[in-house]
Amino acid sequence: MRATEIIRRTTAERRRDSLERLGSERDMWVSTAHPDHGPHQLPLWFLWDGQAVWMCTGANSATARNVRKEPRVRLALPDAFDVVLLQGEAKCYPAREVPKDSADAFADKFGWDPRTEETPFLYLRVAPRTVRAWRGVPELRGRVVMRDGVWLG
Q1: Is residue 2 part of a domain?
Q2: pTM over 0.90, yes/no
Q3: Cα-based distances in Å from 114 to 38, 64, 106
Q4: Residue range 1-29, pLDDT digits in tens
Q5: Is residue 29 in a domain?
Q6: Which residue from 118, 128, 116 is spatially nearest to 46, judged by alpha carbons?
Q7: Domain housing 45
Q8: Which one of 5, 39, 105, 142 has the fewest beta carbons within 10 angstroms of its own beta carbon?
Q9: Is 79 exposed, middle or buried (0-12, 13-18, 19+ CB in 10 A)?
């Protein structure tokens, strides 16, 4: 493996790069917690609508059960070098109650519509309150690019 020189980005550049990845990537790691059983983490497909992340999971899954009891979640794009972490609260929408435009956009992106499945699905909407983005140690300082739901830079 070859070392790569890291050129420190400005907050505005990190914000731009984070938004670009949110708009183009497919998978997001979702971390939830259960009061008795502790942390739970798994990857889900996601849609970024410009304001929030939309994901879908089985209505009876551990993820769904956890967010109903504790809505605070942490999300991560799957790249350990170009890190983007989001934190916020998940709002739950049963498939029959999800806003049509969001569910349609999700179905268009993935070619799969959870609303048509026989088993019940739950959509999760997470509007981030905090976003952190960094590439290696040189970018650890200043890694917060969104604070209290407001983009910085």
Answers
A1: no
A2: yes
A3: 28, 14, 9
A4: 445 678 899 999 999 999 999 999 999 99
A5: yes
A6: 128
A7: 11-146
A8: 5
A9: exposed
- The encoded tokens of residue 27 equal 């998978």
| Digit-coded pLDDT (tens) for 69-124 | 999 999 999 999 999 999 999 999 999 999 999 999 999 999 999 999 999 999 99
- We report the CATH number of the domain holding residue 57 as 2.30.110.10
Q: Are β-strands 121-135 and 53-58 bridged in parallel, bridged antiparallel, or unpaired?
A: antiparallel
Q: Give residue 65's region: left, alpha or beta (phi > 0; psi -120 to 50).
A: alpha
C-alpha–C-alpha distance, residues 66 and 40, integer Å: 8
What is the model's pLDDT at position 4? 65
In a domain, 132, yes or no: yes
**Residue 1 falls inside a structural domain:** no
DSSP string, 57-88: EETTSHHHHHHHH--EEEEE-S-SSEEEEEEE
Structurally, how many domains does the chain consist of? Answer: 1
